[in-house]
Amino acid sequence: MNLVFLGMGKMGLPLARHLQAAGYAVTVHDPDIHRVRLARDAGLRVSENLAADLKLASMVLSSLPHDDALRAVGRQVCEGTPAGVALVDTSTVSMQASAEVGQLCAGTNHPYLRITVSGNNHMAEAAQLTMMASGPQATYQEALPLLKCWGPNQFYLGEDEQARLMKLVVNLMIVQTSAMLSEALALGRKGGLDWESMWQVIAASAVASPIVKAKSLQLGQPLLVRDFTPTFTVHQMLKDLELILGAGKSLHVPLAQTAMTQQWMQSAIAQGDGQQDYATIIKVLERASGLNT
Fold first, then answer.
1. What is the distance between the alpha carbons of residues 177 and 107, in angstroms, rounded to a whole number?
2. Domain identity same for 42 and 130
3. From residue 239, how far is each of 16, 92, 172, 187, 222 by CA, in Å?
4. Could you tell me the CATH number of the domain that includes residue 137?
5. In a 3-state reduction of DSSP, which class is residue 40?
6. What percentage of the chain has pLDDT greater than the value 70?
7. Cα–Cα distance for residue pair 232/171, rounded to 1 Å
8. Is there a contact between 8 and 16 (Cβ–Cβ < 8 Å)?
């Protein structure tokens, strides 16, 4: 199988590396010179003539930053590869843009598989992602050996945009976990509870989900040294919040709590913390409560 992988960002690069390590022939491309250099340093073959490589592709994979990038890649695949070559996209994008690409692919006989992933770039590096797929089931079965290179869990959800929506459902719960922690921890600190003790109890309690335990390891240190190094920045989370709220609007689902969390993220940016981990909204609630950060 001759794979062309478009997009060597923080997720795309480790995904392509895992495929190559599994023995697949992978050619990669990215418009960013820095990302191309990282791909070469990782031992990946970088395309010198993308049009020629696309003509020889058995399957095209992509990991892209936004809707317009997916639309552009959809056109590129439909115009530059033979009919029957599948596009397998792993980006976090809107359902609307994804559906547009789906219509384009259907019109040129290019199977289109949506693969959304749950997990950050560290989990991608460790091949511990969870994959959610929707699109033609036959294409999913063809791509399944590739998906198993990226993590232990794969779920097929339907023929259309189900994977895109499921990603937003999961991310809504992740960001709202951060909002829940922000309020709870501010309440505890203001009432005199010890910061480290709170994290120890929370991590051993009924609410100790994997994401809570991960944040406990990251943030449950003494206040002066707690670590907001980003696993996913505030700016990145705002993009996902816009997609989540957009889906709520189109489906007529009120997402009032999520809308409030979006405002807290905006406050974090205004306070200079936009490049920190999205859990930095903990500091937004602390400041609003008169606590030192």
1. 41
2. yes
3. 24, 9, 12, 28, 31
4. 3.40.50.720
5. helix
6. 100
7. 11
8. yes
Q: What is the pTM of this model?
A: 0.93
Distance of CA 121 to the CA centre of its chain: 8
DSSP-based three-state secondary structure for 203: helix
Residue with tokens 């989540």: 244
Please tell me the distance from the alpha carbon of residue 67 to that of residue 79, in angstroms, as a whole number: 18
Distance CA 73, CA 79 (A): 10
Same domain, residue pair 120 and 254: no
The 3-class secondary structure across 178-196, one letter per residue, is: HHHHHHHHHHHHHCCCCHH
Q: Per-residue confidence at 177, pLDDT binned at 50, 70, 90? A: very high
User: DSSP for 111-165?
Assistant: -EEEEEEES-HHHHHTT--EEEEES-HHHHHHHHHHHTTT-SEEEE--SSSHHHH
3-state secondary structure of 71: helix
Give the DSSP H or E segment for 27.
Answer: strand 25-29
Give dist(CA 154, CA 117) in Å, integer. Answer: 9
Q: What's the average model confidence in pLDDT over 222-235? A: 94
Residue for token digits 């951060």? 178
3-state secondary structure of 94: coil
At 77-118, the pLDDT tens digits run 999 999 999 999 999 999 999 999 999 999 999 999 999 999
Provide mean pLDDT across the span 6-23: 97
Task: Give yes or no: residues 154 and 20 share one domain.
Answer: yes
Place of tokens 């696309």: 54
Identify the bridge partners of residue 244 per DSSP, sorted by sequence position.
Answer: none
Domain that holds residue 148: 2-159
The verdict on 103 and 245 lying in the same domain is no
Return all residues near 200 (Cβ < 8 A) that are at least 6 apart. 216, 220
